[in-house]
Amino acid sequence: xxxxxxTASYDALATATSVLRDAGVENPARDxxxxxxxxxxxTPAEAWLQRDRIADPDIAGAIxxxxxxxxxxxxxxxxxxxxxxxxLELGVDRRxxxxxxxxxxxxxxxxxxxxxxxxxxxxxxxxxxxxxCIALALAVEGKFERxxxxxxxxxxxxxxxxxxxxxxxxxxxxxxxWLDPISGERFSVIVSNPPYIPEAEYHALDASVRExxxxxxxxxxxxxxxxxxxxxxxxxAFLEPGGLLALEIDARSTIPVTDLATASGWTxxxxxxxxxxxxxxxFANKES
Length: 288
Ligand SMILES: C[S@@+](CC[C@H](N)C(=O)[O-])C[C@H]1O[C@@H](n2cnc3c(N)ncnc32)[C@H](O)[C@@H]1O
Prior knowledge:
288 residues, alpha/beta, 7-stranded mixed sheet, two-stranded antiparallel ribbon, elongated, binds S-adenosylmethionine
């Protein structure tokens, strides 16, 4: 007697969960639900209710492919092509870094600074935008008249542009190194989550990061300060008086990065903590 669709779906899902568990995936049920949701193009809650659709061979094949990728160590966000960032759902693939929770705190701090300012902020600049997460989160919540975002990677900018179009948010995306694509413009806020991993440490990164995420998004020269030094040296020329520079940094680098910022002429240099109480953000101002 052949199995009904509900029993067959249940068996297929149980097998997929075992494949993920045997591969060492920490939360196989959650990952499978996310995979199911991305293949069925519904929310994870809806995916569970629609699980009988995996009786369709095309859907079963797509789920099997995704489960194999996840079991081989690929990050879930790349397998599903989705990543949550604050109130946004972003598309991601291997051309752009997967947005991290810590970076949500950087956006929250920039928004809080903008709201507290006597004059409303005008323009914002996001350096090294990747998936566009920071620029788009500011566009959806901030009161900025204009947002510009740069990245050296054409691939990352394609991901960012696609996210902006899908979300109906306007950002001026520009390809080039840090501030090179900017000329004659002045911003109220310059924000960046630059790469900051030293070359030697890059090779010791977890394989789930090193083998899948773009190296240009992670590594930054022998001491990890190449990108940060460049930004600290040049960003001042593009900020309005009283404007804010906000950078995500390595929690172990607060002292050298604070020294670099002070030596580069920044004032009110201060470090703030992330949601996990680690010192992860550097804020500095340009003299009024
Ligand atoms: C740590 S990732 C951050 C991406 C995104 N802002 C986020 O928070 O998820 C650093 C980004 O800087 C970009 N990048 C690296 N070198 C760059 C350069 N010289 N000029 C501009 N962007 C650069 C990388 O392509 C990458 O997208």
